[in-house]
Amino acid sequence: MDTLVFLGTGDAMGVPRVYCDCETCTEARTTGRNSRLRSSVLIDNGAGFLAIDCGPDWRRQMELLGHRRMERLLVTHAHFDHIGGLPEWADSCRWMGFRGELYAPAEVIPVIERQYPWLSGHIDLIPCDDGVTLDGWQITTWRVNHGKNGYSYAYRLEKEGYVWIYCPDSISLTPEETKSMHGADLLVLGTSFYYEAAALSTRSVYDMTEAADLLETVQPRRAVYTHMSHDINLEKDYILPEKVTLAVTGMKIPLHPEES
């Protein structure tokens, strides 16, 4: 049975913030329940894994799980918190003598190549706009609004009747952008704040109050919120839809209809 593992659940800055002594950051430095590396997940099939996003905490995430070899990766978009670990992955491919496979939408690949022009020496960068099948998962992707930060991509993964969505960076999605989310067994959604008071024009990710409205529209069987800033303190109780869980580093979810 495939298992979804949360490598990181934090926003672009992670938690704790180095400069911050708020309640959440203080707890993250002590008992550590709120400690959040940059958002990333992997699908563990027992023999190997497929990862989604490779941020600057990638090396630490691999060490925490005891993984030494990553062969394949999906990328949602080319912001640093989602691709900052690519140089270290490329170096591991070089040392271990194999070529990694990076799958991303075609318009994302040139951005990655400009950032890391030597990457293709060790990793194949493969467009996946028309869909791809990896480890038995039928995977499709589409562009989603990322607010003031431009755009990102969401992924829909389907296998043996189970459907789940990964969408860590989005806001104010249109009906066209949400049509592939409807009725999924699991929606993993980025929510940086519980309620973000800043003007919508300055924002880039859903808050949890807005996400509740999205869930009401797309009706997943279960939802997990990730990409959380230090605004979210897991020691507190929040008013959330019954079907929602807040992600914790290392959390595992079986990807199987009977477990959804």
From TrEMBL:
Gene3D superfamilies recorded: Ribonuclease Z/Hydroxyacylglutathione hydrolase-like
InterPro entries: Metallo-B-lactamas, RibonucZ/Hydroxyglut_hydro
Domain Metallo-beta-lactamase: start-end pairs: 37-227
Top-level taxon of origin: Bacteria
Catalysed reaction, written as an equation: 3',5'-cyclic CMP + H2O = CMP + H(+); 3',5'-cyclic UMP + H2O = UMP + H(+)
Transmembrane segments: none
Alphabetical list of SMART domains matching this protein: Lactamase_B
Protein task: Counteracts the endogenous Pycsar antiviral defense system. Phosphodiesterase that enables metal-dependent hydrolysis of host cyclic nucleotide Pycsar defense signals such as cCMP and cUMP.
Name of this chain's protein: MBL fold metallo-hydrolase
Taxonomic lineage from the root: Bacteria, Bacillati, Bacillota, Bacilli, Bacillales
